[in-house]
Specification:
3-stranded antiparallel sheet, 5-stranded antiparallel sheet, 2 helices, alpha+beta, disordered N terminus, Phosphatidylethanolamine-binding Protein
Amino acid sequence: MTKKIYTAATLLLAFSVGLALSQDKGGKGGGKGPAGPGLTLTSPDIEDGAIIADKYTAKAGPAAVSPKLQWANVPAGTQSFALLFHDPDVALQKKMDDVTHWMVFNIPGTARELPGGISADAKLPDGTIQIKNTRGAVGYMGPGAPAAGPYHHYTFELFALDTKLDLTDAATRADVVKAMDGHILAKGVLAGRFHQ
């Protein structure tokens, strides 16, 4: 009886050590350890939650440029990214839709940034596609909330997708959102504040 207890204890100890070793390989073992950080979107030009500098806004007029965006912690299986820059606060002002300031999709899955000052071309050399903003122009449109009201929270949302979208630059924001449905692996958010 003592020998059986000793053997069972030895097997249990060996199993426990093996399980611990399998989980202690940088979180890549067979065990389910704590989840790693999610998709993170940052910018050297806009601090999360801070006021957006004039050069990226309507205050700069036609000279307004898009900020540089960077991301990390991309999930496995990412084939492309889509980016939406919008003003959700407008929807709180008794309007049906918020303002689409910029929508970009089919950013290559290998990309880890969008450079600042992206041209207003519908299709970029790497296959990235930009569609029309609320004003009907292709590309980035800087924030422009009026001075009379409160600061608006302008929000960049980056989506990691498990596919490339079968759409052209003629697509609308609704078309892109519909095509992304069921393909979103992760989402990163960056917001800045602005009013004139």
